[in-house]
Design brief:
Elements lengths: L3 H7 L7 E3 L2 H6 L4 E4 L5 H16 L12 E9 L4 H14 L10 E15 L9 E7 L3 E7 L6 E6 L4 E5 L1 H4 L1 E5 L6 E2 L2 E2 L5 E7 L18
Antiparallel strand pairs: 1-7, 2-8, 3-4, 4-9, 4-12, 5-8, 5-12, 6-7, 6-9, 10-11
Bound molecules: 2-oxoglutaric acid, fe (ii) ion and manganese (II) ion (MN).
Length: 221
């Protein structure tokens, strides 16, 4: 019979929605790249998608330039929300941000179609502060983080619908992040078929910048 000690050893590498190139990077990013599966209830997922759908549908998917980070997407910066959605966003704030952090006044809503994807990038340090927190709706996806100086160091996050991810500190500044396209959408051996995915992303303002001084952040921050 296996003792509890052995069981603990076997499950040590971390939660089943985070994988990495090794124990050192998993340990270092333990609090910097976080996934909370099931953060949203089914009712909350529906509240958000019902509210977002009509606004998104007015826009056309963009494919843009060969060097753009995001392909097959439409997006909006949303600052007016229903009361039910405001309560959800308040929970995100409490879960992801510290009391000293100010958030960008509008929330980034990104709709990736089934063949849409996001190439590796680091969010602009001019417009975004130390913390990025995103809710995922509709389709699961895999977010990959790769160290910008040490490409052998990586992390993969399994983002199920209803999950919240948080990137802060080193995960946000020292690693690029990307959302894998359908053909490459694997979490380890496990195939994660990509459908349409909507993300709702809250970001902190760069330190020392008041809410009125942020200027106009670019569409994809
Ligand atoms: O869709 C997401 O969760 C991430 C989007 C992203 O990386 C960005 O807009 O900079
Ligand atoms: Fe990003
Ligand atoms: Mn961006």
């Amino acid at each position: 019979m296996a003792g509890t000690g052995l069981l603990a050893l076997r499950t040590l590498p971390g939660p089943s929605w985070v994988r990495g190139s090794g124990p050192s990077v998993l340990n270092r990013l333990r609090d910097a790249a976080v996934v909370q599966p099931g953060f949203l209830s089914t009712a909350e997922e529906e509240t958000l998608s019902r509210e977002l759908e009509p606004e998104l549908r007015r826009r056309r998917y963009e494919y843009d330039h060969w060097d753009a980070a995001i392909h097959g997407f439409r997006e909006t910066e949303k600052s007016r929300w229903s009361e039910a959605s405001r309560a959800i966003l308040q929970r995100v704030r409490a879960a992801a941000f510290g009391p000293g952090q100010t958030l960008l006044s509008s929330v980034h809503v990104l709709d990736l179609e089934a063949r849409g994807y996001i190439k590796p990038h680091v969010d602009s340090i001019k417009f975004c502060g130390a913390t990025i927190a995103g809710l995922s709706l509709l389709s699961p996806s895999v977010m990959r983080l790769v160290h910008t100086q040490e490409p052998g160091e990586w992390l993969e996050l399994l983002l199920e619908p209803g999950s919240l991810y948080i990137l802060r500190g080193s995960a946000r500044y020292d690693f690029s992040h990307e959302i894998l396209r359908d053909e490459e959408s694997f979490f380890g051996e496990r195939r994660i078929p990509r459908g349409r995915r909507i993300s709702v992303i809250c970001r902190s303002l760069p330190e020392g910048m008041g809410p009125g001084e942020s200027g106009q952040p670019p569409a994809a921050c």
